[in-house]
Design brief:
The chain is mainly alpha-helical. Helix content is about 70%, strand content about 0%. It has a domain of about 130 residues. The longest helix has about 55 residues.
Length: about 210
């Protein structure tokens, strides 16, 4: 076989090693890049899924604050009162779903989320109850300037988002320890404050 190769190569019928070696090298490099791309995509897909989950959980927790302003600016019709009440119930169902799903991902992160949600609802619930007791005002009303606003939500939001970043780097030892240390005391599923419920007579009552 080697003699045949030498004779054919001498006749110019087969490429010499100096001619096909660069092509083989280029193919090997391309294959290595393809393998790296497949591995990166495999690692990135679960990470992107978790990012989407945490993003929805964060948005739903913050929606309690937006719910307060919607109640204050409602048009005082029974139809909108019922729509707002349904919105609070749907929001609570989604938050309960996030709590359970986060706990399946990470107990420390679920504790962080529960702390965040408890703070948001603890600040907003009394203000929502008071807003239901007063007639709604249009957004342009000067009365909104003197309204009380929830406090400390931005700080708690930043704390939860920092814990999310730690969890996304949980493959490393130090972020995992930090996340556990920061979330040791809060139970993973604290009781939920009641949401407003509709009545037949008019606006929802807490």
């Amino acid at each position: 076989m080697s003699c045949s190769y030498i004779s054919y190569s001498a006749l110019g019928l087969l490429p010499s090693p100096s001619e096909w070696a660069p092509a083989v090298g280029a193919a090997a490099i391309a294959g290595a890049f393809a393998l790296v791309s497949v591995v990166a995509a495999t690692v990135r897909a679960p990470r992107d899924r978790r990012r989407e989950l945490y993003s929805r959980a964060f948005a739903d927790a913050m929606s309690w604050q937006e719910g307060l302003y919607r109640v204050r600016r409602r048009d005082n019709t029974s139809e909108q009162d019922l729509l707002l009440t349904a919105r609070f119930h749907d929001l609570q169902e989604r938050i309960d779903h996030h709590r359970a799903w986060l706990a399946s991902e990470s107990i420390p992160l679920a504790r962080s989320y529960c702390r965040f949600v408890s703070h948001v609802k603890g600040e907003c619930q009394p203000l929502i109850t008071a807003a239901w007791a007063d007639p709604g005002k249009p957004p342009s009303s000067a009365g909104h300037a003197s309204s009380t606003h929830p406090r400390g939500i931005d700080e708690q939001a930043s704390r939860f988002l920092f814990d999310v970043r730690l969890h996304l780097w949980s493959a490393l030892f130090i972020p995992t320890l930090m996340l556990r240390h920061r979330n040791q005391k809060t139970p993973p599923h604290p009781p939920s404050p009641p949401t407003p419920a509709p009545t037949a007579a008019g606006p929802p009552t807490p």
